[in-house]
Amino acid sequence: MSREITITALKYNPSDSESKPTFEEYKIEETPGMTLYIALTKIKSSIDHDLSSDFVCRAGICGACGMVVNGKPKLACKTLTSDFKDGKIELLPLPTFPLIKDLSVDTGSWMKNMSIRVNSWIVANEETDISKLEKRIEPEVADEVFELDRCIECGLCVASCSTAIMREDFVGAVGLNRVARFSIDPHDSRTDEDFYELIGDDEGIFGCMSLLACEDHCPKDLPLQSKIAYMRRKMVKV
Amino acid sequence: MQIKYTDALIIGGGLAGLRSAIATGAKGLDTIVLSLVPVKRSHSAAAQGGMQSSLGNSIMGEGDNEDVHFGDTVKGSDWGCDQEVARMFVNTAPKAIRELAAWGVPWSRVKKGDREVVINTKKTTITEKEEAHGLINARDFGGTKKWRTCYTADATGHTMLYAVANEAMRLGVVIEDKKEAISLIEKDGQCYGAIVRDLKHGGFIAYVAKGTMIATGGYGRIYKQSTNATICKGTGHAIALNIGAYMGNMEAIQFHPTPIVPSGILLTEGCRGDGGVLRDKDGYRFMPDYEPEKQDLASRDVVSRRMLEHIKKGKGVKSPYGDHLWLDISILGREHIEKNLRDVQDISKTFNGIDPADEGEKGWMPVLPMQHYSMGGIRTTPEGQSVNIKGLFSCGEAACWDMHGFNRLGGNSVSETVVAGMIVGNYFADFCLETEIDISTAMVKKELKRQDDYILSLLAMDGDESIYDIKDEMRIIMQDKVGIFRNGEDLADAVEELKVLLKKTKNINITKKNRLLNQELEEAYKVPMMLKVALCVAKGARDRTESRGAHFREDYLKRDDENWLNRTISYWENADDLEPTLKYEKLDIMKMEIPPAFRGYGRKGMILENPLSQKRQDEIDKITAGHTGDRYELQDKLMPYTLQPEYKSKNQRLGDEDE
After folding, report:
1. Which of B19, B272, B408, B475 is catalytic?
2. Whole-structure pTM value
């Protein structure tokens, strides 16, 4: 049995001086297994050609489609319309990130700044000869690094974070997780002192108020809170 | 109107583009990478199962080397590949993976001692050697003789992309996202950069460069059902077509056996590599009946066809979305799935409400072959430069380099992206270093104005066609008439219907007339581009009257080495033409290291042989019999090839000296 669902979306084009934020309401027929990706694609092609949103992989892998769905930050492509019993869904763009238009926000610039701020790359003090056998890594250690490397920079943790709203330069759970990831990678030669230089302040590890919303909303179920606590214990010792 | 100058311009910020940027950056060139999306969201991130590289660390990969990888790749390609390029590739892949390890890809590692794996649906214990402990591990994949596919669970593309993007950032490569190249600047057969639309602010910028690289991935979105991301529209190919560049083998389209139904999201080949199997409506495992040797792990083109063949016999599972088959990984056990196939589990749970770790049929996932990969692309030399436009380079899925021929092996595409990024990226850097350009600003401004006028003309159109309808129709035509099973009549219809659609794009109406942030306007200039790409695919398929690799003709069932051992070249002769012009580039059997033969899987006796194949084989046998040196010297005698010395050097393996 199909039903009609109502999707309400914020529409606003900040680059157009005439544009004013409004809510637009769309009624569509729900199809089996419908996700917000399918629903919004249908709305864009048949009801409102002017509605903007961002989807890339539509499989929960790339992190492009974060938006606020009935008050909660979610990946739209992984959200099923059938999860909303009353068939009413309200969509807002992710907060904290600059709005491009409607549901489309600029997460790219934010993530780039964060990456540069925390030096989100391997710092090695030895050259690798790529024609020789690779450095040996304990299988469990590789698995641990992989666990933290699963972050997709979707920005839901940032959009859920109170500190991120108050402090523009807070690196967020995404940034702190990234540092935790490099700190346990045997290819990285940086010491705790080096990491302290990067995140040992209120824009970094000491900005977190432990409100836990980052972990609640992480679509990859990353252990953000325990990793932030782990980094904080390490940084306090420095 | 703004003009930016750079040494190297790279269009596309996936693995191939970013790795190329590292190559140009390392040679001190000013480099700009343009990307439709933040680069870490590129479609490379969606590669799941792994990267082929013949390290041979795991006991199941023992004895692997470049020669074995080469043989698998050539057979996989159904002899359509450029064997010299395949050689360049297999020799560089081990170096690529070791470089990536050093940049932080947390490759799964070998653990010494016993471990349980599933082989042929039975739990089997294998024992990893003590000396392999801590080296990079590999899993089984389709069409390979050894376990060669290195992985990080089923998020391999993701970890590779992050490592390469991070390294590019460390080197200070300039990456500009939300930028779309909509035309190339060309004069007298040379490319000088691109006209680019800023997707955040809507304006045009001209990027003038000594060399331009297209690394925009595949064009799967011309099909209704595709595993590809929404951005894989082939616009990089279209802008190259628009300046006359040659495309190679555009009809060579891969259909992956196991996207999930109905969303079309990929479930990795690693599912079957790790021991999962396909089942029919009766729960019966049918692949061994068709393919006794490789069973569920024959090459993708073969498995996809066998699946549809089985469905045609009435063995499919009925569903509102048509018939499908089952993929069963429950036999691998929950622990294995939750560690090594967790994204697969997440996808299946989220989109289908099925936990594949649940035992028995409760955990089976509905699958059906869908468009997955574009073997064809911008035809390049082994150095990666367009064969007919100077200064235009291409690598990765966007290019027809051509190491995949008519069928790509699983695990060879992410591998190609970084390997080509290294090899082609370096040749591209050399080109940019050696080249001086003298392009006038007047000429650049003229091209900017032409694009500006074009956008205005689109907005001014007052027709009655909807660009969205045209796009949907194109995708259905490609799906129904240029799919897995092809025939002359349908293909001829497809070409004519696509031409009609291309005409219709000149008679559309855009609802909102604003130039900025108007996604309908973006569709209006992209759909005609997609149609041009689709026409190359359909016409190439129509005229290729044989079956080779993924190109399968019901009316020409055999691979025809006598008449069709060639590469289709398609190009746009005149801007106003409604269809591409085709010509063919012959492959030389007498230069091949492995002359055409049976692949070892797929139907037997389906080859129209070329007498030269036997002649070349005899020649090879004679050289081999009289050879006294090592395998490297033999290879050089059979088919010498050129590669940068740093990549041509020998790859050390376990047991080789001087560890």
Report:
1. B272
2. 0.97
Neighboring chain B residues of A58 at a CB cutoff of 8 Å: 229-230, 263, 265
Is residue B26 within 8 A of residue B8, CB to CB? The reply is no
Confidence of residue B658 (pLDDT cuts 50, 70, 90): low
Task: Calculate how close chain A gets to B263, using CA atoms only, in Å.
Answer: 8
**Average pLDDT for residues B375-400, to the nearest whole number?**
98
The average pLDDT across B366-377 equals: 97
Q: Residue B460 and residue B450: Cα distance in Å, rounded?
A: 15
**Cα(B95)–Cα(B93) distance, integer angstroms:** 5
Residue B281, pLDDT score: 96
Chain B, 218 to 247: residues with Cβ < 8 Å from chain A are 229-231
Residue pair B411/B447 in contact (Cβ under 8 Å)? The answer is: no
Q: What is the largest CA-CA distance in chain B?
A: 75
CA distances to B246, B328, B440, B536 from A173, rounded to whole Å, are 47, 37, 49, 47
Interface test with A, best of B109, B226, B232 (most A CBs within 10 A): B109
Q: Which positions 99-158 of B are in contact with A (Cβ < 8 Å)?
A: 99, 101-104, 106-111, 133-137, 152-153, 155, 158
User: Could you report the per-residue pLDDT of B517-533, keeping only the tens digit for each?
Assistant: 888 999 999 999 999 99
pLDDT in tens, B308-328: 999 999 999 998 888 999 999
Farthest-apart Cα atoms in chain A, separation: 63
What amino acid is encoded at A163 in this protein?
T
Of B227, B262, B257, the closest CA to residue B353 belongs to: B262
Read off the tokens for B585: 């580039």
d(CA A28, nearest CA chain B) in Å: 17
Does the beta-carbon distance from A52 to B98 stay under 8 Å?
A: no
Per this entry, what is the length of chain B? 659
Least confident among A15-19, B272-276, B498-502, B557-561: A15-19
- For residue B396, what are its two tokens? 């990765």
pLDDT at B519: 87
Residue with tokens 């993530």, as numbered in its chain: A111
Look at the alpha carbons of B164, B165, B166, B169 in this order and tell me if their dihedral is positive or negative: positive
pLDDT in tens, A104-119: 999 999 999 999 999 9
CB B294 within 8 A of CB B74: no
pLDDT at B365 over 80: yes
Give the rounded percent of residues in chain B with a pLDDT score beyond 90.
95
Q: What is the pLDDT of residue A1?
A: 62
Cα–Cα dist B8/B428, whole Å = 8
Distance CA B221, CA B485 (A): 19
Instruction: List C-alpha distances in Å: B275 to B202, B316, B337, B641.
Output: 49, 22, 11, 37
For residue B335, which phi and psi values (nearest 5 degrees)? -60, -45
Q: Compute φ and ψ for B611, nearest 5 degrees.
A: -55, -25
> What does the alpha-carbon distance between residue B127 and residue A131 come to, in Å, rounded to a whole number?
27
Residues of B in contact with A107 (CB under 8 A): 38
Distance between start and end Cα atoms, chain A: 61
B544 is catalytic: no
Among candidates A13, A32, A124 on the partner chain, residue whose Cβ is nearest the Cβ of B102: A124
Task: Report the distance separating Cα B641 and Cα B643, nearest Å.
Answer: 7
Mean residue pLDDT across chain B: 96
Which among A68, A178, A44 is positioned nearest to B467, based on CA atoms? Answer: A44
- Give the tens place of pLDDT for each residue, B119-137: 989 999 999 999 999 999 9
Q: According to DSSP H, which parts of B122-277 are helical?
A: 156-170, 235-241, 270-273
- SS3 string, A73-84, reads EEEHHHCEHHHC
pLDDT of residue B659: 47
| Residue B26: Cβ within 10 Å count | 14
Minimal Cα–Cα distance from B658 to chain A, Å?
9
Low-confidence ranges of chain A (pLDDT < 70): 1
